[in-house]
Write a structure and sequence with these properties.
Largest sheet of chain B: 8 strands, mixed
GO molecular function, one term (chain B): nucleotidyltransferase activity
Number of helices of chain B: 18
CATH superfamily of chain A: Beta-grasp domain
Protein name (chain B): Rhodanese domain-containing protein
Structural class of chain B: alpha/beta
Largest sheet of chain A: 5 strands, mixed
Strand order of the largest sheet of chain A: 2-1-9-7-8
Radius of gyration of chain A: 17 Å
Number of helices of chain A: 3
GO biological process, one term (chain B): tRNA wobble position uridine thiolation
Subcellular location (chain B): Cytoplasm, Cytosol
CATH superfamily of the largest domain in chain B: NAD(P)-binding Rossmann-like Domain
Distance between the termini of chain A: 31 Å
Helix content of chain B: 25-40%
Keywords (chain B): ATP-binding, Nucleotide-binding, Nucleotidyltransferase, Transferase, tRNA processing, Ubl conjugation pathway
Helix content of chain A: 10-25%
CATH architecture of the largest domain in chain B: 3-Layer(aba) Sandwich
Number of domains of chain A: 1
Number of strands of chain B: 13
Radius of gyration of chain B: 27 Å
Number of strands of chain A: 9
Shape of chain A: globular
Order of helices and strands of chain A: HHEEEEHEEEEE
CATH topology of chain A: Ubiquitin-like (UB roll)
CATH architecture of chain A: Roll
Oligomer: heterodimer
CATH topology of the largest domain in chain B: Rossmann fold
């Protein structure tokens, strides 16, 4: 049962980034942005910090595709954070829903960032997602 | 503190004199100098920086900063504030230095193991900079005493390690209308920010810690402690250094014009992610228009608000366990001796710790199956008429034993027990040479 890893960083870090980012230093140099989405879909980058990755199959980073528009009462509407949170609960969450969700939104104590800003600065659930948006979910840490 | 106040009034009087007099002549007189001669040398490298200068140094000298917690975050904070010449620094910590602190709590020394951390840090700071006034408070910060202890200070620095003190310090910063520099670190991750108080350039209030983190998330990876989850010294070091930087920026009026939260992970790219925080929350119970928290902090139930993890008892684990469900380390030792003498193979000793910890030390003859694997499928555990679980201190082993008991039938006639006090007890009662980490 004992596994000894020679990678000191990946074997002992308990809060995400278990291998992907440490093992791929080439990602330090970002390739030029290529068009990633078709006309009908957008690409969204999700990241989990402060231990929240444990709710999502212990993966700190996910890249997902969502439809650009969702049809509500026969009218196409831009996809919003409300749709994303719902989609995550249905498709990505690996633990019980109440550990992440609260109504349409997320539990108090989870901070949601849209492109490096608190989502409350961006319209919260009504924020309309754009291609290659980066959405980060973090919880607070207490160690010192 | 009095000494600094006297010096303050002396130096501002001296500055007035300079303004009205022949400058050269005034500078020749020692009473005209806001700093001692050696301080010009000591702080020279930072004073010559544009935008800092003598006025910046005098701001630091006159400042009174309270640092709560002299551990992994507190040590770098204190070290840089003292080095930079912050005139009065309070250090609040009730805890004593332990050997397992020293990989990250770099102000303490091997000689000072068992000394109070506030006292130990005080010795280190005085050696570093005898020109500053360091006030050790070797006591715990509590809702009933915190406000009066911290009232004399103009900036609070939260270097504590649990939710209760974090929310308490935030509430005090709101009550005193002073900024709170709050940081945290665990494992490979850390975060820090300035909460509360007013932004000098805009006059706007910052969100308080409660505005951003209105409730404690139980069972999230972030709220463990360093003893359980481990922590890199460089992570607390980087976060603490960032926090000291925020304190210095606040003191010299170079604070961020919009409140920022910094998130660090040792393996992330970028190494530090900086995000814009929202303004104060109208719903905040500490700083909102309908706030319910008052100066009487004792009436706010911090304990129940923060209740998340179980309280651990080193001797027994958090739960005492039912009749016959637990055994003491000495009994395990006897069982192991008996089993090695006989050839019977109907006994299994399972160590439930993470494999990385099992690799550090283990009881001879034990098999490592980490708790999450056991809980996932207890029926797949090796079958034996006698199963004993052991862990670091006798908590996880109870969960494992409980899980196995649920899947074995009465008719199987198997016995499932766990070791009270775990490996700590094994060290204490059986093998004093067994490593404790």
């Amino acid at each position: 049962m004992t596994t000894v890893s020679d990678d000191i960083v990946t074997s002992s870090n308990g809060l995400g980034y278990t291998s992907a980012s440490a093992a791929h230093p080439e990602s330090l140099v970002k390739p030029p942005a290529a068009p990633t989405a078709g006309e009908d879909t957008i690409e969204i980058h999700l990241e989990f910090g402060g231990g929240l990755h444990l709710l999502f199959s212990s993966q700190p980073r996910h890249t997902i595709r969502l439809p650009r528009f969702v049809t509500e009462s026969n009218t196409p509407q831009p996809t919003t954070m409300r749709h994303l949170v719902k989609w995550m609960k249905e498709n990505l969450l690996s633990e019980r829903e109440e550990m992440f969700g609260d109504g349409d939104g997320v539990r108090p104590g989870i901070l949601v960032l849209v492109n490096d800003a608190d989502w409350e600065l961006e319209g919260e659930l009504e924020y309309e997602l754009r291609d290659r948006d980066e959405i980060v979910f973090i919880s607070t840490l207490h160690g010192g | 503190m009095n000494r600094v106040e006297v010096e303050m009034s002396k130096s501002s009087a001296a500055t007035d004199k300079i303004m009205g007099q022949d400058t050269l002549q005034a500078e020749a007189s020692s009473s005209a100098r806001p700093l001692e001669l050696d301080e010009y040398v000591r702080y020279g490298r930072q004073m010559i920086m544009p935008g800092f200068g003598l006025p910046g140094q005098v701001e630091l000298k006159n400042a009174k900063v309270a640092v709560v917690g002299a551990g992994g975050l507190g040590c770098p904070v204190l070290q840089y504030l003292a080095g930079a010449g912050v005139g009065t620094i309070a250090i609040v910590d009730h805890d004593t230095v332990s050997l397992s602190n020293l990989h990250r709590q770099i102000l303490h020394t091997t000689d000072r193991v068992d000394m109070n951390k506030a006292e130990s840090a005080c010795i280190a700071l005085k050696a570093l900079n005898p020109r500053i006034n360091v006030v050790p408070h070797p006591m715990a910060i509590t809702p009933s005493t915190a406000l009066s202890t911290l009232a004399p200070y103009s900036i609070l620095v939260d270097c504590t390690d649990r939710p209760l003190t974090r929310y308490l310090l935030s509430d005090i910063s709101v009550r005193l209308s002073i900024p709170l520099v709050s940081g945290a670190a665990i494992s490979s991750a850390g975060q820090w920010a300035v909460y509360g108080g007013t932004i000098r350039s805009s006059g706007k209030r910052r969100a308080c810690y409660r505005c951003i983190w209105p409730s404690v998330l139980p069972n999230s990876g972030g709220n463990g402690n360093c003893e359980e989850q481990g922590v890199w010294g460089v992570v607390t070091g980087l976060v603490g250094t960032g926090m000291a930087g925020e304190v210095i920026k606040l003191l010299v009026g170079k604070e961020d014009s919009e409140p920022l939260l910094h998130l660090h992970h040792l393996c992330s790219n970028p190494l530090i992610r900086t995000i814009r925080m929202k303004p104060p929350s109208a719903k905040c119970i500490a700083c909102g228009p309908n706030a319910t928290i008052t100066d009487d902090l004792d009436v706010f139930g911090y304990e129940s608000f923060c209740a998340g993890g179980p309280v651990t008892n080193d001797q027994t684990g958090s739960v005492t366990g039912g009749e016959g469900e637990r055994l003491i380390a000495k009994d395990l030792s006897e069982i192991l001796d008996l089993k090695s003498a006989s050839s019977e193979d109907d006994f299994v000793l399972i160590d439930t710790r993470p494999s990385i910890e099992f690799g550090i030390c283990s009881v001879p003859g034990s098999t490592n199956i980490p708790l999450p694997e056991i809980l996932k499928d207890p029926s797949s555990l090796p079958r034996a008429t006698e199963t004993i679980f052991i862990c670091r201190r006798g908590n996880d082993s109870q969960f494992a034993a409980e899980a196995l008991r649920r899947v074995v039938a009465e008719a199987d006639k198997v016995r499932v027990r766990d070791v009270r006090g775990g490996l700590l007890a094994w060290n204490r009662e059986v093998d004093h040479d067994f490593p404790i980490y």
